[in-house]
Design brief:
By secondary structure, this protein is of the alpha+beta class. The strands form nine sheets. Strands 5, 6, 7, 8, 9, 10 and 11 form a seven-stranded mixed sheet that branches. Helix 21 (796-821) crosses helix 22 (825-834) and helix 24 (860-869) runs antiparallel to helix 25. The chain is globular, with a radius of gyration of 37 Å.
Length: 1382
């Protein structure tokens, strides 16, 4: 409820004041002064005399002219009866009065009446944009005004009468008398369903029935024109059978007792418009009387099935709501639950409602606004602010989903809306009906392309087929991955309309997180939104930044957000990857970085949910995507964090507890479900004599469990450990080196357990793997480590020269290896395989094939492998040569930019601890699962022993963040390979010395290169300043328990979310400070003076800002920066308090005085850049200029070209006027026209490459033989089975002809569209010359093939005239030709 309060206070800032404001008109009468205390008569019944007085005063106060029931059976004359049966209000008000709800009615009605009355006030000079203040009592003076007020009263009574149904609380407490009064409430959708605007003459007095959140008409009741008694039980609107509601080519219609109405013509050619078009906005617009346009009263009312059973035990679960109405009704019910509870909690039978409440702010930094004048409509009314208000523009972000698409599968709805948004089309403009055939992705997209509204527009990139198939499977998942729903918002530069533009991303597959697995990934939506604090958003605020920031926060947190027929609520936020936009429209091109937030939403309800009267707090596991049950956000949070079950959890700080939600969103591999008796919770961590935790974040598991996890993940061997999640624990688990039993067990330590978890559900007892330790390989030296290496070097110049030498040697060796490999296609394929990204194998395993897009594989490495395996030579085919050179060039440029110098005798390994205690302080153990080989130095060993090594963790800031320690081999630890083991002895854990690291999955850089290690001396741990004591930093405290106690609100979750969202979405200055520290240290040429230590300490604290509740604002940073600017090395800039300049190595060329002296400048400008430029030039000359043309690719077309008449004969007939095209002349001429048309679209497209490629490819696939000839021979070219895999004669003819036409004009076009067919034609030509047929492989077998290094080297030796000698054991078949052994 606090969020509601803040929203209302925001309205006051825009010129609205509470009804009880002192500024109100003196003639206003406080409605709460009416008697509101029901009294019992002497007989124990109700005293109606008091109610009669209350009723009369209430009616007269607002000029409602309410009547008591007609005691006779006489029918009143026509014309006397009003729009409502006024007599029904008496009995209904009487019922609520005696239930103690009089004050609620008075308060809600006063607010709504005043708001409605503000629309009646005459505006000065009729100015449409002038909003006069309300200074008079909101009394009805005309019948339309009275009707509006009666509408309002009916809504409130409906709301209260339906609030008597019992429901369960979030924490599954037994039903109490107060809990039994909760009710379903009408939906925001009902208040959003507005009649169409029509221009009317000035002074028209058509009765106005404003759309409302609690409209009786929209909720399904039918009122006769004559008085009828109120039904004693709510009538049920029964959904028509699906076959009746959705015909194949027609809309469902709704028949009223008065007139017929038709469904909105959103996806049909029908011209009729519904009085209430389907919408998903959560606010309504009540147009003032002085406006040029007015709303028409509704002409359609839903049919009420009066025969439907009213008993809850007789009702059957409904598969969906009655369209959008039902969803929005349930949304409003959820939002107003808390309002009713709060109002009732404050109703006194001897006093009026209090005007406001305040939260105790002692432990919280954010101001809490008071609440008053809250009504059901207030939650959604867009007229409480002007048309350009932020709130209204935010509510317009979510597009409406047409009624007849509500029953379509979620994936179908997603794709249709995604295409419409991409093309800038309104959903109402799509004349398409949902049909089950649209569940086929190809047919859906064919149908969308055929729509007139999309003609001439490029469609967005398709969702990948594997993601689509998984989404249509019913559970939104494949074997080990789930479908991800992600949308993004970009700021709308226009002054009106939605504040953000919505984009739906293609469906994609990814690993699941725990919440995905438990509740279904389709219930989770990820939103990428620009930070509210970026410059462009601030500009929109026109100087009032807090207004727009508050509006965005309230909008995000409060919800619900209705999208695609579902009601979503946010529950987590974290920073997203910044978006970089390159601007060319400025005098100087620049790259702008836009900070972004990732917001996670949960679907609480939906039109495709199963709606039942059964009460449950948490949805059952295993629900399909079209049969979810309702569940609230607070229940989701409580299921994960178990806040209500544990006092210990409630005592955690608000911000730390909120940060734990992210653990439930970690994408992991689910593996083994452990039983409770297999879990060992340790009571105490391993501590040093100074009480430092020596095993922070790490524990052990049995070998048997490690083996089972290996089997589930399909690993080759049992790794030393796994980084993972287990219940409330996170960290790293290593095998117990001493365990040789078959017992399955796992342990957790207090440092791992982030909240108290009961481990009752299987999902909390599932070991989730994030990563596993793996084979180690040579690593690159991170840029951040170079200044520390120089600072701690015994001989700094020698250190610079050695690092430069490593860069030069690694560059030369890589380029030389590529040049050597390109001499032979087989050898080059081996080189491509060895230099491919490690992620490539995972993608192939996951998909069961190589990732493919249109005519070629997705990655350049896979493209080269395909072309090489089919017989192309990289030195002869220009397309292949450009890919190879581009790949090398990109790697060189990346090396030059990031300066990741490869050091052969170094690696990255997980940091773990020695639980056996055999390692001494400052000793480490590092063993390898196979020989670690460095060709440059000749090193080849399986472990390190008796040598000094350097260990570090990035990011590194302090000089002590690199430590020199002793590597020793301990047989007791021999089973733990590919991890570096630190000692548990000493006073401070070694990991803590490395940038404040721990053992929950942190990775260390380990170097045993003698020229670096022997030239390094450890720095003592720095004496860090106390930034909290000095006032630089501060903390906000406040536990969840205190929040729940101080707020007094039932909806603590919304307040919890609001505080956490606001704090977490504050600008993070971590990156800003890190960049500044780099400039300052460069300017001062020091990483160890007091200013560098100050900045390092500040950055170390900001890393955990969100979790620890650390406050450091932009104003705080400006203060510190001004002080630091005066201490920079540039005295001129220091005197002016200007920021230090960027380091020279950030530029493309050296621009400083003299020769580069800083280690990074030296490595980049003295060694790296000249070497890269020189060697790339040599590689380019070596490769030479290859040809675009390949004769093997046009032979297929030439065969068909010969079927045409000779050119001379055709010319002769044409001159004689006897020319008539033959069959093949017509076929080939029409094919050329179609190819030219597709090629023109390729050239003219300005879309991103992926979208351009896919759109063009779809048109390419639709090229079929012309229907101008009726030849069965021609039609036979499209034989179905071969056509389905792209290898029909027609496919090959198209590819061959396209290559002939465009190999010179547009060389890349034929390859990206028909590369597979061209590769097939090449393989046939090459195989013919070798007397062997080409071999086709299934997608899975092809994905699993890898070049045999020994075979490649043997063939290369034979080609060079050298003899290849087989080893004896190979001749005997003891060892296979497998690259595993290379």
């Amino acid at each position: 409820m606090e969020s509601t309060r803040r929203s209302h206070t925001s309205n006051q800032r825009h010129g609205y004041r509470p009804a009880s404001s002192p500024e109100s008109s003196p003639e206003q009468l406080p409605v709460t002064s009416l008697p509101a205390t029901p009294r019992k008569d002497g007989g124990g019944g109700h005293d109606d005399s008091q109610f009669a007085i209350w009723f009369l005063e209430f009616s007269n106060l607002y000029n409602l002219n309410l009547r008591r029931p007609n005691p006779s059976f006489l029918v009143e004359p026509a014309g006397v009866s009003s729009y409502y049966d006024d007599s029904s209000f008496y009995s209904r008000l009487r019922t609520q009065y005696h239930r103690g709800n009089a004050n609620i009615i008075l308060k809600l009605f006063e607010n709504d009446a005043r708001e409605i009355h503000s629309k009646w006030v005459k505006k000065p000079n009729g100015a449409p944009d002038v909003t006069p203040s309300v200074t008079s009592l909101p009394r009805a003076s005309t019948e339309p005004e009275r009707t509006s007020l009666l509408n309002c009263l009916a809504e409130i009574l409906d709301f209260l009468s339906r609030s008597e149904r019992p429901r369960r609380s979030v924490v599954d407490e037994p039903l109490s008398p107060s809990a039994s009064r909760h009710a379903k409430r009408p939906s925001p959708d009902e208040e959003c369903r507005q009649p169409p605007k029509s221009k009317r003459s000035k002074g028209a007095t058509t009765p106005l029935r404003p759309p409302s959140a609690l409209s009786r008409l929209d909720s399904g009741e039918v009122r006769a024109s004559t008085p009828v008694p109120e039904p004693t039980a709510p009538l049920v609107v029964r959904d028509a059978p699906y076959s009746q509601q959705h015909g194949t080519n027609e809309f469902p219609s709704t028949v009223s007792t008065s007139r017929s109405s038709f469904a909105p013509s959103v996806f049909s050619e029908a011209e009729g418009r519904s009085a209430f078009p389907a919408t998903q906005e959560t606010e309504i617009s009540v147009v003032a009387e002085s406006s040029q346009q007015r709303w028409k009263p509704s002409s359609s009312r839903p049919v009420v099935d009066s025969s439907a059973p009213s008993s809850s035990t007789e009702r059957t679960p409904k598969a969906s709501f009655n369209g959008q109405n039902g969803l929005q009704q349930d949304i409003t019910e959820s939002m107003l639950d808390n309002l009713l509870d709060e109002e009732r909690a404050n109703v006194s039978h001897t006093a009026t409602l209090p005007s406001s409440k305040h939260l105790d702010q002692k432990e919280f930094d954010h101001p809490v606004a008071p609440i008053d004048n809250i009504s059901p409509r207030k939650l959604y009314d867009t007229n409480s602010i002007d048309d350009t208000s932020f709130k209204k523009r935010l509510q317009a972000v979510w597009p409406a989903l047409p009624e007849h698409l509500q029953r379509a599968p979620l994936a179908v709805r997603w794709e249709i809306m995604r295409v419409a948004l991409h093309c800038g089309a309104r959903m109402e403009e799509l004349p398409i009906q949902y049909d089950p055939t649209l569940n086929d992705q190809a047919k859906l997209w064919d149908g969308l392309r055929s729509l007139p509204v999309f003609q001439g527009k490029s469609l967005p990139e398709k969702s990948k087929p594997e993601a689509w198939n998984a989404a249509m499977s019913g559970h939104f998942r494949s074997a080990d991955q789930v479908v991800i729903l992600c949308v993004s918002l970009t700021l709308n530069p226009a002054k009106a309309g939605p504040l953000f533009k919505l984009t739906l991303q293609p469906l994609r597959l990814d690993l699941p997180h725990r919440l995905d697995r438990r509740f279904g990934s389709d219930r989770f939506l990820e939103l990428i939104i620009p930070s509210p604090h970026i410059k462009d958003v601030k500009i929109l605020s026109k100087g009032n930044e807090s207004a727009i920031v508050d509006a965005i926060h309230n909008w995000l947190v409060e919800g619900p957000h209705v999208l695609l027929g579902r009601a979503w609520r946010s529950f987590c936020t974290k920073q997203a990857t910044p978006k970089k936009i390159h601007k060319d429209d400025t005098l100087r091109p620049e790259t702008v970085t836009i900070l972004q937030e990732r917001i996670y939403f949960f679907a609480e309800n939906g039109n495709d949910f199963v709606h039942t009267e059964l009460i449950q707090s948490v949805s059952p596991k295993g629900e399909s995507s079209n049969s979810h049950t309702k569940m609230k956000r607070e229940q989701l949070i409580d299921w994960l964090l178990q806040i209500q079950r544990s006092k210990k959890n409630q005592k955690q700080s608000v911000y730390k507890l909120f940060s734990r939600i992210a653990l439930g969103l970690s994408r992991t591999h689910p593996t083994i479900i452990l039983q409770p008796h297999q879990i060992r919770h340790r009571d105490q961590d391993i501590e040093s004599p100074t009480k430092k935790v020596m095993n922070d974040g790490i524990a052990r598991m049995s070998t048997a469990l490690a083996r089972q996890i290996r089997d589930v993940m399909g690993l080759d061997d049992i790794p030393a450990g796994y980084q993972g999640r287990f219940g409330s624990a996170k960290g790293f688990w290593i095998r117990d080196a001493e365990d040789i039993s078959d017992e399955v067990w796992i342990e957790t330590f207090p440092s791992q357990r982030k909240w108290e978890c009961d481990y009752e559900e299987e999902d909390h007892r599932t070991f989730e793997v994030r990563n596993a330790s793996k084979d180690l390989k040579s690593a690159s030296l991170n840029l951040q480590l170079l200044p520390i290496l120089e600072d701690r070097a015994i001989n700094p110049m020698a250190m610079k020269e050695q690092v430069g030498k490593f860069m030069k040697d690694s560059l030369l060796s890589e380029i030389e290896a590529q040049k050597e490999a390109m001499k032979d296609p087989a050898h080059f394929k081996l080189w491509v395989h060895e230099n491919a990204a490690p992620q490539r194998r995972q993608d192939r395993v996951r998909l069961g094939r190589i990732p493919w897009a249109c005519g070629l594989p997705v990655s350049r490495e896979d493209q080269m492998e395909l072309l090489l395996s089919q017989g192309f030579d990289p030195k002869k085919l220009e397309f292949l040569r450009k890919i190879a050179f581009g790949l090398r060039k990109d790697k060189c440029e990346e090396l030059q930019t990031r300066l990741n110098v490869k050091v052969g005798r170094s690696t990255y390994a997980y940091m773990v601890v020695d639980f056996s205690g055999v390692l001494k302080e400052d000793e480490v153990h590092l063993g390898f699962s196979s020989k670690f080989t460095d060709e440059q130095s000749g090193f080849s060993e399986t472990f390190l022993h008796g040598i000094d090594v350097l260990v570090a963790r990035t990011p590194a800031h302090y000089p002590s963040d690199i430590q020199r320690v002793k590597a020793v081999f301990k047989p007791e630890l021999g089973l733990l390979k590919n991890v570096i083991i630190f000692s548990t002895k000493g006073n401070i854990p070694l990991a803590d010395k490395l940038s404040g690291g721990d053992y929950d999955g942190d990775i260390a850089w380990v170097c045993w290169e003698p020229s670096i290690v022997n030239n390094f001396a450890n720095a003592p741990l720095p004496d860090v300043p106390d930034l909290f004591g000095s006032g630089v930093l501060s903390k906000v405290s406040g536990s969840y328990e205190h929040l729940s106690q101080s707020s007094g609100l039932k909806d603590v979750t919304t307040e919890f979310m609001d505080r956490a969202f606001r704090f977490n979405m504050e600008p993070s200055l971590l990156g800003t400070c890190t960049n500044y520290k780099e400039k300052l240290c460069y300017s001062r040429n020091s990483v160890q003076d007091e200013y560098a230590i100050f900045m390092s300490t500040l950055i170390s604290n900001l890393v955990d800002r969100a979790k620890q509740g650390i406050v450091f604002s932009e104003q705080d940073w400006d203060r510190q920066r001004r002080l630091l600017n005066a201490k920079q090395g540039d005295s001129r800039r220091a005197s002016k308090r200007l920021d230090p300049l960027q380091p020279q190595y950030k530029n493309n060329g050296w621009g400083g005085p003299g020769d580069p002296s800083h280690i990074i400048d030296y490595v980049k400008f003295v060694v790296g850049k000249p070497t890269v430029e020189r060697e790339l030039e040599k590689l380019n000359r070596y490769l030479g200029q290859a040809e675009h043309f390949d004769k093997d690719l046009v032979r297929f077309f030439e065969f068909f070209e010969k079927l045409k008449r000779p050119y001379e004969l055709r010319k002769k007939d044409e001159e004689a006027g006897k020319f008539k095209k033959s069959t093949w002349e017509t076929v080939l001429d029409e094919l050329k026209k179609n190819i030219d048309k597709v090629a023109a679209e390729w050239s003219d497209s300005r879309d991103d490459f992926e979208i351009k490629r896919e759109n063009t490819y779809d048109k390419w696939c639709n090229i079929r033989p012309t229907d101008k000839v009726a030849s069965r021979t021609v039609q036979s070219l499209c034989e179905t089975t071969l056509r389905d895999v792209g290898l029909s004669q027609w496919d090959l003819l198209k590819a061959s002809y396209c290559f002939k036409l465009y190999f010179k004009r547009n060389p890349a076009f034929p390859w990206y569209i028909a590369g597979y067919q061209l590769a097939y034609l090449k393989s046939i030509a090459v195989s013919r010359g070798r007397n062997a047929p080409p071999i086709l492989l299934t997608p899975e077998m092809y994905a699993g093939t890898r070049p045999d290094g020994k075979f490649v080297r043997a063939v290369a030796a034979l080609h060079d005239g050298r003899r290849f000698e087989q080893m004896g054991d190979e001749a005997e078949g003891a060892e296979s030709f497998s690259d595993e052994d290379v």
